[in-house]
What does this fold into?
Amino acid sequence: MPNTDGTGSRTAIVTGAARGIGAAIAQRLAADGLSVAVVDLDEAACAGTVETITSAGGRALAIGADVSDATSVDTAVERVVDELGAPTVVVNNAGILRDNLLFKMSVDDWDAVMAVHLRGAFNTVKAAQKHMVEAKFGRIINLSSTSALGNRGQVNYSAAKAGLQGYTKTLAIELGKFGVTANAIAPGFIQTDMTAATAERVGVPFDDFIKYSAEQIPVQRVGQPEDIAHTASFLISEGAGFVSGQVIYVAGGPKD
It folds into this structure.
């Protein structure tokens, strides 16, 4: 059911939305009344998210795009404009892991993570920002991570997620006068395929990994994708228009 805060006629792009956090955000924004472009590397993989949205009465479009490639992103955004309407909300969630200790990490693994997280966020906002400027309204959300504070075996991922925080703050400064806000969400432990991959990397059964992690979190549970989706829903709302340039740690407790 569309909300009543004025966002109901807007179009959002959510990258990395085939599963996990991205899928949860896409579904929540659709429930808030936005039309949602569900973007992922494999268009077919987006079908489940799109079906969930449309079966609930929402409007969604599956789009395959490589966010690290500017031409691919430009083509995707043009398709969004043609089929859903000019996008004024962008959620940069697409991400990959190439974990390893520094002395084992290849240049390719470093570059791949930087390309998807940082260049991908740059490409997507650059392609969409003109529509926000024209509308005098825009909401940009970049998915950072508590790993931005440092995490063993993730020197590439940590650097990329920290970079997204600086990127976010600069977007807020440059685009604020056009009615565009930019914020970052930094999730802690969220139960997804990606954290399952981390458990596998360190050689711990996922159930044990979850149990141990929950014991270290003040609220005594791990996060779910919906926890991040709720935060994204607030940040794209009309009511969040005076919140910009912020990094919100959604981690079940305080982070430095």
